[in-house]
Specification:
binds cobalt (II) ion, 136 residues, 3 helices, alpha+beta, 2,3-Dihydroxybiphenyl 1,2-Dioxygenase, domain 1, single chain
């Protein structure tokens, strides 16, 4: 079941500059940054309860965010819905004909499991579904 808007992601060509904008100009707090090797991105999280803003930047200058930046120079990149059972949500949506960018969820930031729905299944919007890691 989808339970929350986990984050809204913005692809940025200059991560330090973007962090500075959100922190110094908008007065928000940087929650942390993380290299997500599976997605070839560096992600900076800015909590803004009840959701977060994720700034995404290509790790090592390659990957899907690098391609996006080459085409568009930056912009709104994806929405992420939080799920309490990602396998169940993926199976339910596949049954309805939704196409995904991967066969199964892969490791995401903070030990979560993530998968992306193809934008063609959602009127051009890239939607991520994530299931946070179990609390320890
Ligand atoms: Co995301």
């Amino acid at each position: 079941m989808i339970t929350a808007l986990d984050h809204i992601a913005v692809a940025v060509p200059d991560l330090e500059k973007a962090i500075q904008r959100f922190v110094e100009d908008f007065g928000l707090t940087l929650g942390g940054t993380e290299d997500v090797h599976e997605a070839k991105t560096t992600a900076a999280f800015i909590p803004l309860p009840p959701t977060n803003i994720e700034l995404v930047y290509p790790l090592n200058g390659e990957g899907p965010v690098a391609t996006y930046l080459e085409k568009k120079g930056g912009g709104l990149h994806h929405l992420c819905f939080r799920s309490d059972n990602i396998e169940e949500d993926v199976a339910r949506l596949r049954e309805k004909g939704y196409q995904f960018l991967a066969d199964a969820p892969t490791p995401g930031a903070h030990g979560s499991k993530v998968i992306f729905i193809h934008p063609r299944s959602c009127d051009g919007v890239l939607i991520e579904i994530n299931q946070p890691a179990e609390e320890h």
